[in-house]
């Protein structure tokens, strides 16, 4: 499990992006109308994901981890407090569970995207 980035659910995507840009982050990509990927400092890689989505807002901010196979992980760990998963995204599978304190833990794989369009934006 590798830390991919941190997700921050936001209500006003443009206002949130404006703040992060003002303090030194760079707008790396906007995969859709509800998502902005940001890199900080001199890093070429995404470190923050701003997301406007009601499910993500309900879950709260937290890390996104890249794993090899989200569906297999879900099947191996039915005991976890799953909010949902796996669901198919344009990049691959995605799932979210809560840890023992209720913090969201997001998992993603790039089984569809591979090393392509979005995977290359994150640390290898």
Please characterize this protein's 3D structure.
By secondary structure, the chain is an alpha+beta fold. Helices cover 19% and strands 40% of the residues. It is built from 3 helices and 8 strands; from the N terminus they run βαβββαβαβββ. The longest helix is centred in the N-terminal third of the chain and has 10 residues.
Brief synopsis:
The protein has 124 residues and is an alpha+beta fold. The chain has three helices and eight strands, in the order E-H-E-E-E-H-E-H-E-E-E.
Overview features:
3 helices; 8-stranded mixed sheet; 124 residues; alpha+beta
Strand residues, percent: 35-45%
- State the secondary-structure class: alpha+beta
Question: Order of strands side by side in the largest beta sheet?
Answer: 2-3-4-1-5-8-7-6
Distance between the termini: 12 Å
The unreliable regions are: none
How would a textbook summarize the main sheet?
8 strands, mixed
Task: Return the average pLDDT rounded to an integer.
Answer: 95
Question: In sequence order, what are the helices and strands, one letter per element?
Answer: EHEEEHEHEEE
Question: What's the alpha carbon Rg, rounded to whole Å?
Answer: 14 Å
Question: Which word captures the global form?
Answer: globular
How many individual helices?
Answer: 3
Beta strands, count: 8
Helix content: 10-25%
């Amino acid at each position: 499990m590798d830390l991919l980035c941190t997700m921050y659910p936001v209500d006003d995507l443009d206002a949130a992006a404006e703040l992060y840009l003002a303090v030194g982050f760079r707008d790396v990509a906007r995969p859709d109308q509800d998502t902005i990927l940001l890199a900080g400092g001199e890093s070429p890689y995404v470190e923050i994901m701003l997301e406007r989505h009601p499910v993500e807002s309900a879950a709260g901010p937290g890390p996104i981890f890249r794993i090899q196979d989200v569906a297999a992980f879900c099947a191996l760990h039915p005991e976890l407090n799953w909010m949902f998963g796996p669901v198919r995204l344009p990049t691959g599978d995605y799932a979210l569970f809560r840890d023992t304190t209720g913090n969201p833990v997001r998992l993603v794989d790039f089984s569809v995207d591979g090393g392509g369009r979005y995977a290359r934006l994150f640390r290898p």
